[in-house]
């Protein structure tokens, strides 16, 4: 009987490969970067590849793309009968780091491949996402990082920043997490005497629209269709104002001063990485209401309890603090 190529994959010539799977949104991915670099640092002998949205490679300078068969296969590994071609490809890897949602991916991989499974999100009321993931790596014997990774990563991803303006990113993956545009326009009206201000609109915000009052309040509008275009816009930021969004998470990790407005979502779980992040929350007793679960309000009333002056005050304090640190 012919040998089953799934059970006994033929080794590919060249250096041994490590593979990271993460199909989550931008903010979820950024919060997972400490776990990604921790596993990669524990295995410097591997050549690392990333399986997920292709634009994320802009944030992984030392990673390469995965073979095309994985991108064609999509999420077939989640099913009871994984795609044999995908299993053959996985069998050529030495180690696979895979992120899931509330549960680690229950994938069936060749026995010779070391598989590190990580649940991306904590249970309701759980720990901050990076801490939740770190505990899982502890349990699987992955050694902690010996040196800080953020400074070197920042210099690779945003090599020559020229901070000169305030940027406002008014969107997020869920419109219910967005402070109303009129409130952001009021914030800009208070801050533009300090620095020039611009609004950053990604593809999702451009499709949604409804930013007219904010666009009128700003000196400029920067539209970004790709992650690399977003990084180019962020290189000009001395301060970013945003919601609980992927852009806020990215900017906080990059070390750019960030004021993030949180309404129904819980900053104890979703606070961005970075020491130059200020969280501004609503004063409503019911907020945050999600605590890691789906947001229950169709139109969250908690935003009514977050005055623009609270964001303005946080922004001024952060600008003054970073000026002193220079």
Write up what this structure looks like.
By secondary structure, this protein is an alpha/beta fold. Helix content is 34%, strand content 17%. The chain contains twelve helices and eleven strands. It has helices at residues 26-42, 68-73, 84-91, 129-139, 150-157, 181-191, 203-208, 212-217, 227-234, 246-253, 267-270, 308-325, and strands at residues 17-21, 47-51, 64-65, 93-100, 114-119, 165-169, 197-201, 220-223, 237-243, 258-262, 277-281. The strands form two sheets. The protein has a six-stranded parallel beta sheet with strand order 8-7-6-9-10-11, with helices on both faces. Strands 3-2-1-4-5 form a five-stranded parallel beta sheet, with helices on both faces.
Specify the structural class: alpha/beta
Beta-strand level of the residues, as a percent range? 15-25%
Distance between the termini: 70 Å
Largest sheet, spatial ordering of strands:
8-7-6-9-10-11
- The H-and-E topology, N to C, reads as EHEEHHEEHHEHEHHEHEHEHEH
Uncertain regions spanning at least 5 consecutive residues = 1-13
| Whole-number mean pLDDT | 88
The description of the largest β-sheet is: 6 strands, parallel
Helix content: 25-40%
Let me know the number of strands: 11
Count of helix runs? 12
Estimate the global geometry from the Cα principal axes: globular
């Amino acid at each position: 009987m012919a040998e089953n190529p799934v059970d006994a994959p033929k080794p590919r010539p060249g250096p041994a490969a490590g593979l990271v799977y993460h199909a989550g949104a931008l903010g979820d991915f950024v919060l997972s970067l400490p776990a990604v670099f921790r596993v990669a640092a524990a295995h410097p002998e591997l050549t690392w590849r990333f399986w997920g949205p292709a634009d994320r490679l802009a944030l992984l300078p030392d990673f390469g793309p995965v073979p095309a068969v994985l991108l064609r296969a999509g999420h077939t590994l989640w099913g009871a009968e994984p795609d044999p071609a995908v299993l053959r490809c996985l069998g050529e890897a030495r180690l696979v780091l895979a992120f899931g949602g509330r549960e680690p991916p229950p994938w069936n991989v060749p026995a010779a491949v070391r598989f590190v499974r990580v649940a991306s999100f904590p249970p309701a009321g759980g720990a901050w996402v990076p801490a939740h993931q770190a505990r899982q790596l502890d349990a699987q014997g992955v050694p902690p990082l010996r040196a800080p990774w953020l400074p070197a990563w920042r210099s690779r991803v945003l090599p020559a920043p020229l901070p000169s303006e305030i940027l406002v990113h008014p969107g997020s993956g869920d419109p219910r997490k967005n402070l109303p545009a009129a409130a952001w326009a009021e914030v800009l009206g208070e801050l533009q005497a300090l620095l020039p201000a611009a609004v950053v609109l990604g593809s999702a915000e451009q499709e949604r629209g409804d930013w007219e009052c904010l666009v009128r309040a700003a000196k400029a509008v920067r539209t970004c269709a790709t992650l690399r275009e977003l990084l180019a816009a962020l290189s000009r930021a001395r301060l970013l104002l945003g919601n609980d969004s992927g852009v806020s998470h990215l900017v906080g990790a990059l070390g750019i001063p960030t004021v993030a407005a949180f309404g129904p979502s819980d900053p104890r779980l979703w606070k961005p990485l970075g020491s130059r992040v200020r969280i501004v929350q609503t004063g409503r007793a019911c907020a945050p209401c999600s605590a890691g679960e789906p947001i229950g309000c169709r139109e969250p009333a908690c935003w009514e309890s977050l005055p623009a002056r609270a964001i303005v005050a946080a922004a001024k304090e952060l600008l003054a603090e970073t000026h002193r640190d220079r």
